[in-house]
Design a protein that fits this description.
Layout: H1 6-20, H2 35-52, H3 54-57, H4 61-75, H5 78-86, H6 95-113, E1 124-127, E2 138-146, E3 153-161, E4 167-174, E5 177-178, H7 179-219
Antiparallel strand pairs: 1-2, 2-3, 3-4, 4-5
């Protein structure tokens, strides 16, 4: 049985997990209903959407951008995600800096994880065989990503219920690595040395580098 490289797992599963929040218009994915069904049904709907759309499966930038703009941003709480990732220094940022941090983090995640779409094959999401707890306003939903010929991958989703009663995804854990914590540790050194403006510059520079790299790769196909 093929063993998934840890970095590949983290990149691929987090990519799928971020797109989980896309809110694709499927009957079973009720963002105000059962949180377990919301996570599992929506993840599987997204995986199926990727499989049937060649442009999305090929991670064409325009198609990925359209998917994100239409579905991901309204459903995922990127403000909270960014605040959690930046940490205490978020409170010191001006409104303009907060907006640039959030936009920069969004763009970085899109560039980093969109390439994972090309790896989607027959993956399917299932709940882990653990006792289901009654819904609470903040929850961690534990799932397994299953695929033939590959080891199961454990993915946990941190969600919360907002004031409107809708579930929002704010973090993802792949095989013991929480995405927010992982980025927070990377950003901490930049913040300590270069401050908030330094982190903004790093996010924008890194995103531009990935865009150029992805564009070059696309041109060689």
């Amino acid at each position: 049985m093929t063993t998934w490289n840890r970095r590949t797992v983290l990149t691929g599963a987090c990519g799928a997990a971020l797109l989980l929040a896309a809110g694709l218009p499927v009957r079973a994915a009720d963002d105000k209903g059962d949180p377990y069904a919301f996570v599992v049904d929506l993840t599987n709907a997204v995986l199926e959407e990727i499989r049937k759309d060649p442009k999305l499966h090929a991670a064409e930038p325009a198609r990925v951008r359209a998917l994100v703009d239409t579905y991901l941003l309204p459903a995922a709480d990127f403000t909270m995600m960014t605040r959690m990732t930046v940490g205490p220094k978020w409170r010191q940022a001006s409104p303009e800096q907060k907006a640039r941090l959030e936009k920069g983090f969004q763009e970085l995640l899109i560039r980093v994880y969109s390439g994972a779409l090309t790896n989607v094959t027959d993956e399917r999401c299932e709940l882990r065989p653990t006792r289901r707890r009654p819904p609470a306003d903040e929850m961690v939903i534990r799932t397994l990503l299953k695929s033939s010929g590959k080891n199961d991958v454990g993915i946990d989703y941190r969600i919360y219920r907002n004031k409107a009663g809708a579930w929002k995804v704010v973090d993802v854990n792949v095989e013991g690595i929480w995405m927010v914590e992982n980025y927070r540790s990377q950003f901490a050194s930049v913040l300590s040395q270069d401050g908030i403006d330094g982190l903004i510059a790093m996010l924008e520079t890194r995103t531009d580098e990935l865009a150029a790299k992805n564009g070059s790769a696309a041109g060689t196909k």
